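JOB MANIFEST
job_type = single_chain_structure
chain_count = 1
residues = 649
[input]
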Amino acid sequence: MDQVLTLDNAEVEKLIADATAALLKEQKGDGHWVYELEADATIPSEYILLVHYLGEVPNLELERKIGVYLRRIQSAEHGGWALFHAGSFDLSATVKAYFALKMIGDDIAAPHMTRAREAILAHGGADKANVFTRIQLALFGETDWNNTPTVPAELILLPRWFPIHLSKMSYWARTVIVPLLVLQALKPLARNVRGVHVPELFLPKGEHAASRAPHQSRLWAAFFGALDWILKRVDPVWPKGLRKRAIQRCMAFVTERLNGEDGLGAIYPAMANSVMMFDALGYAENHPDRAIARLSVEKLLVIKDEEAYCQPCVSPVWDTALACHALMEAGDEHAAASVAQALQWLKPRQVLDVAGDWAEERPGVRPGGWAFQYNNAHYPDLDDTAVVAMALHRAGEQVAPGADYSEAIARGAEWIKGLQSRNGGYAAFDADNTYHYLNNIPFADHGALLDPPTEDVTGRCIGLLAQLGEKPDSPYIKAAVDYLARVQLKDGSWFGRWGVNYIYGTWSALAGLNAVPVDPQTPMIRKAVEWLVAIQNEDGGWGEDCDSYKLDYSGYERAPSTASQTAWALLGLMAAGEVDHPAVARGIAYLRDTQEEDGLWGQEHYTGGGFPRVFYLRYHGYPKFFPLWAVARYRNLKASNTRRVVYGL
């Protein structure tokens, strides 16, 4: 590996120039970047089923293209569908994909359908699928509603002090559950004009799902299981007036947060549920609320020449802010003009006049965050807010002369300070969303009902505050640093909630700690550096498998090197003062050697986190801007006297 330790300056400069030019070509006319955000087979399958649930006239060409996509990503190894590239069999994703393919006309005797069906039956049949899949099956009459957890619509009427309350759940859970409360109350049946059913996916004895998921405690599961048994038996005699009032409250919740053509919560499951809710309530197709909800789903489609799929959401604010950081690091004068335009696009998307659901916990805090999507005013997030505010602050007079971002930056920082949790950490959307007992309710078999503080978001938030001049003895900084010290794992890594996984978390924590600054010679930083160096792959890159999100949190799972994870590891090492470490040179050489002809990098592996163990994301933009960022930072630090990163990212 000696040859990779010497990096030619001209090669590094060409790598940066080519990547910069390629990234600039992908900027939209109004200044922003947005890349595809791909999940697994679940969302495109659900899109097919939604069309047939509603009884709409299907777009046959679109169905054909989605079919091509679903068949392409089917596993040749286990015959089903995984939650991420080259992953293991997932029962729920496979049931939905099989149902969707059968709906669009695939012969169940075809080899790919036979393999999928046999795999489903070998894993206990469709009744063993997760809650959301069983609800989908119940809507089509494939399984009984008694095989789904009962969540009464009256949940929305409960006082906030009640142990089970919507405000105690995560934003994504709220927006998905509320329209689902109406569907569970009304129990509508899909129109299913083609009359497609999947009885062949159920075992003859009709085995039902396990009473508790692996993450659920036996005691809590028994308690909530008994409660579910009671709710099912009292449901037929529930007071009709109370039920009507609950449904009206659900409707009010959804319509207030409908969010125009960007949709409820700006995430597919909530958006699709809102459409089905309006349909079940008898709203005509041309009713403004139903029509805009339906349009929001359509805008998530990615349609190519030969295949198509549906995204779970879109990521323009995130993509644009990160691309700005990479381009500012690159330092090209053409890039500076593009960044200035992008920042002008980002600034007005700050949420300044809507107190979203986060205000339930922190009513005295002024709004000031940015959302992940084009619009999602009720649900800005701290991660995007920190990254955008850091970009606005970094731009200064060099990139955006004359632009006044001071008020936007101050409001963003104020909002972030106001949403620090009591344990010192920061979550994505809410403060102190730590009601862990709720993950034991039958509905929460995915184990992702909450939004607790995490290491990666915490690192990002203190990165912003420190970059803005907050002192190490500030109560916000001190509490967050103490939190990161407490949750660091024995091997030196940090968990990464929103990126895969320990590499992402470790980079995020190191970036924030460097900005504070925490002395890079402290044991906390040294352990993290040693861990990153120890897990470097033989080819010089870094990779981590999505299976590292194990239930026991037992740590990193090695995987083939990827461009984005390599960039994160490099950025983490450089934040810790290790730009001259041989591992960094090898990592830069890996990016040099894997850069493609178009100046960017390819990556099939999923490195984004949705819900650990349940839902993963392939950010198509990650291998485009993160490697550029890492290589440009390497060049800049090598040329500097201090060798220290002066930004929070």
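[summary]
The chain has a mean pLDDT of 93.
Residues 382-399 form the longest helix (18 residues).
exit_status = 0
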